[in-house]
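Notebook B, p. 112. Complex prediction, attempt 2.
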Amino acid sequence: MLTKTAAICALMSVGLAATVDADATPAGHGAQPNTTKVALRGLTESQYRHTIADVFGPQIKIEARFEPERREDGLLALGSAMLSLTSSGFEQYFAVASTVADQVIGSEQRDTLVGCKPTDAKQQDDACAAQFIRNYGEKLFRRPLTQGEVDGRLKSASVGATQASDFYAGLKLALTSLLVAPDFLFRVETAEPDPANPKESRLDAFTKASRLSFLLWDSPPDAELLAAARSGALHSSAELQKQIERMLASPRFEAGARAFFTDMFQLDGFGNLVKDPMIYPKFNQSVSESAREQMLLRTVDLLVRKQGDYRDLFTANDTYINRSLASVYNVPYASKAAWTTYSFPESSERSGILTDVGFLSLFAHPGTSSPTRRGIKVLEIFMCQATPQPPANVDFSKVQDSTKGTLRGRLLDHMENEGCSGCHRRTDPIGLALEHFDGLGQLRTLENGMPIDVTAKIKDMTIEGAQGVGQYLRDEPRVASCLVRNVYQYGVGRKTVGRDQAFVAAQTKAFVANGYRFPDLMKQIATSPEFFKVIVPKAPAAQATVAQVQE
Amino acid sequence: MKLRFNRRSVLRGMLGGAAVYVGLPALDAFLNTNGNAYANGTKLPTRFGTYFWGLGLTDTPTGGTRWVPSKVGPGYEIMPELESLAPVKDKVSVFSGFRVIGDGRANLVHWTGHASILSGIAPASASRFDGPSFDTKVADAIGTSTRYKTVDVDASISRQPVSYSTRTGSTFASPDVTPLALYTRLFGPGFQDPNSDNWKPDPSIMLRQSVLSAVTEQRHALMKGLSKADQLKMDQYFSSVRDMENQLAVQLQKPEKCESCVVPKSPDATPRAASIDVVNDNTRTLAKLLAMGLACNQTRVFTFVHTAGSSETYMAGQSKIYHQITHDEPTDAKLGYQIETSKLAMQVMNGFGTFLQELDAIKEGEGTLLDNTLVLGFSDTGYAKIHAIENIPMFLAGRAGGKHKAGQHIAGNGEAVTRVSLTAMQLAGAPVGEFGAGSMKTSNPINEVMS
């Protein structure tokens, strides 16, 4: 056995040799002259969690705070295609990687998970370690590892095994190293020349497999899908169709749908939602989590389990409640189960997802409702209509004292102000029609002793209350095209632009013709050529930058 | 005297900025003119941080200022909204009358102001900066010999964790938002007590190094064939890996003793509410931990957010948030300012006063930690009611090891905010001779506050 000093020296030289090696023999996926990396998309927290659960089993615990994600054009999926990792973000990933590796290698199922046994558990065993690295490397990188990538991890494994006289200590290091690699934390999308069309390029089969599985499952490709990528079969439309059918039929599709709607409906906001405890004493962490879950249950039940009409999301009286929510809705909770179905009576003024406590409380202030914020979010989330930044120089001198009257009166000033009216005329009517619900989503009909008027005019239409808004959305054609657009953007990680209009229009038409069924929409988008279309980014940077990067 | 500095940072400093300004703390240590020192003569390091709060301070067009002192130069009078700074007044310089010059770019509300102060450029869009925030440059210059190059904190308890520290302009730091998280970062696993007598290098650190080298050796292969934008992303990724490598290397060295370092106890769970009393309590607890993290040499650079640009804070029990009140409240005809807004501004400034007092509470050498620190305190707007980006309140607090001639009021008379930023960078020891773009480009720091 080595002395400690010797071990340290050995370690340092390993580190050095590794660096020199890399410079001498650049190799790797993407290093082939004909491939182009067309996009880097950061793995979202939800994709990370699903990956760990699917690859190592749901028993692996991940207790960590992830770097905040950023929403672009309504979707975190678009933001994650633009973001990188900060130092503290990387530290967090490193810490999580170590705990995941500890759990995998230290677990009772170790032998099953590792898949081979070393000849001597006190020593490095290159064959078994390499097998382990290749197996999990492919699952995590979503493509086979290059020899260089395997060798680097074998070195780590050997260092660890030697230092601790424990083969498994080495495997932990190798696994940790896979889990912090950019090839795992980012989805590297790669294009290659299209054999059928030598001048054109196509996404390589592994990139296609990842696009499919992250869209439909929010998780990386499973063994079967990877096999179809490895053999190249995935390039054929018959195989593609077969795989999509299989994936839609899998129970994982529900997880995929939940991930999509969590992103589209901006439900990540519940993690940081706060309310004033004096004004809303019923609000607490459990209400917040339940409100989020209620929106997801309503959506997944209608759209995935029942394969229902997307438009019913805005008008259906049927929902799910639990004990926490029953208190906010002011209804008795008699069930012994954690959740139970519940149908809102007409007098509750509720119907559809906009009247869920979740939507109403998420898009409000800590101590009050906000018709403007709610209006902005209805337009943004369900109709893909962005509201511009408010102008800087607003004359607020006419704005009245807010302790009197209702919000409607105060907002009318916005609608009369020239700089404000353009936006507030669009956003406020929708929000004002939801004003029978306070900042927590509780029914109220008076504000400061005055009855709240919930009639609103949208263009030439007069709507009445929250149910009116729901009906308005149900009938609004842009609601369907917005969903179509979001599914596509979410899947390809790219914002739709003018040239995508015809595609979105055609897909919307098909979606409508199919009865607004969400699974059919997923299928039709995933099978469309546009889903795998290669958009080559601007020219790669000059070599100088690469050299600089190497510094 | 033992010095631990990174050879590269010194070289960079010499090549990059020595002709303009020799500002590396390591070099200052050789000079050791008027800085404080440990009892054994070791020079104390200069620390740097930014402190941000949302919604400015009250200075109305009708002349009802609540924060701009009438006296310029040393010995300014304490204005009502500056009251919380009174106990540390001699260590704080006030900068009024500096503005953002957008060169035709729109004033993006609650964004343009601080984006310009930090990046030197009025941004084109409201979710990113057009350049890195300058705290990262200071961190590159003075932050490489501590465990963390920088520590980012957000006390606001708002919808999303808020940080305005960025290297790329689009990826912002992920701050610690609770005392427990900050405690864990600074004093949790991996913390080595500098005053412990039986220090031994932790062998697991070298194992972690080998994990990282397996990653970095693939850099070349990964970089190849990436678009420019994606290369930038990978640059940042690998720079994050390097920061961790540096962190591990630092941990393999025996830490220098720090007289002022007293390892704190793990904090209790704190309430989650965005009301100003809770945010200020959170600010105090986080400031205490951060100050001790600085004293224990875990970092030399920090960014701290009290409340975000369009702040969500409010008086407990009130339905309207501060942000709404700044816009909606009429100006009192007699007093010439908004009464409720100014009350809230005073509350918000209590956070800053508290923060500075926590730094000042730690004795270091013959002075305090605040004497060896420079904090740029600033906001997103001047007069929030009209989203003004003129007269944005800015402060330099702490003596920066004697380099900051503190306790003055500087009237900017419409000059660019970047002059204050440049002054901060140079006082903190970053080898930077020029900052900003367009009309906000400057190589002219505010000499009156530099010794």
